[in-house]
Amino acid sequence: MKRGFASACLGAIVAAAAVVGCAAGGEGAARGEGRQVGAGEVRDLTDAEQSVVDRATQLLVRECMEEAGFRYWPEPVAGVDERRGGGYVLDDVGWARRHGYGTRLQEKALAAQKNDRNHAYANALPEARRVRYSNTLDGDPSGAVLTVELPAGGTVQTPRHGCRAEAKGTLYGDFPAWFRAEKTATNLTPLYVPDLLADERFGTARTAWSACMRARGHDYADPARIRERLPRLTRGLSEAKAHAVEVELAVAEAQCATEETSLVRTARALEREYRGGLREYRDDVADHRRMQHAALERAEELCGPAACDPDN
Questions:
Q1: Is 305 helix (H, G, I), strand (E, B) or coil?
Q2: pTM of the model
Q3: Which of the chain's ends, N or C, has fewer CB atoms near its CB within 10 Å?
Q4: How many CA atoms are closer than 13 Å to the CA of 160, on its beta-carbon side?
């Protein structure tokens, strides 16, 4: 069985910046603490809150598509567990014990995508209507697009119209403004990754983590080496044995990072320090967080906790 280990958060090189996984808002936010993280500063949404927004987005897309005369089934929304596990190092021993590096979660998500009823429905439509379905959902590729310059260079584009854009506009209040803020705030990591990785404090913590792993019988210089070798370590094993190998390594990684060394604490502190130095992007980050919370409020008003629960 093939086992992919692509990060849910970032690419393999840049993933080091999301040093403690991709749970928005950090440790406090994951526990559902208040919105404020500083004087007048609003935190990012928690994973659970983002799931509510994503579910509401899907319900709005369905409403829009049905108004246009098409059927649409809301796409599966990742829950809290599915959103964790990415980044440079695992910071949750309990999650590691349940999911290892998240291989089964990833395979489940891929299976859901493969069995998406919307794909089957669209493919069964006559060609002209299939094109209209696609344009209604994602916008006409020859139509208006939004373009944003990324902080580290390059640009990213998205259709200005379509049901997906309309749904986000309804939740976030202003789709073009949201797209600009979101693409800027979530693409800052390349600006400070090299400095963070080269920081002596990070290097010291990483060396201590490696010594901890070696004492447990796992000789790895850093967490990325585990992810590189894992497919070979599990090749040819039954699913149960492969999962056991994965869990053993993941639990050791997380325990060494959180209980035996200061790797996670150091990484969090350095990430706050380096991100805090990107003063020219503070307004973009603030706008991103403000619109996140506005979307959450609208999502809760729209469908309520039961309808927006991704497990329903």
A1: helix
A2: 0.83
A3: C
A4: 9
Around 24, how many Cα atoms within 13 Å sit in the side-chain half-sphere?
Answer: 23
Residue carrying the six token digits 């906790």: 305
Confirm if 92 and 247 have CB atoms less than 8 A apart. Answer: no
Helix 189-198 × helix 263-276 angle, to 10°: 130
Count of CB atoms situated within 10 Å of the CB of 199? 17
Q: What is the mean pLDDT of residues 23-35?
A: 37
- For the residues 265-275, what does the mean pLDDT come to? 96
Q: Residue 216 CB: number of other CB atoms within 10 A?
A: 15
pLDDT in tens, 140-193: 988 899 999 999 999 999 999 999 999 999 999 999 999 999 999 999 999 999
pLDDT value at 262 more than 70: yes
Cα 65 to Cα 136: distance, rounded to the nearest angstrom: 7
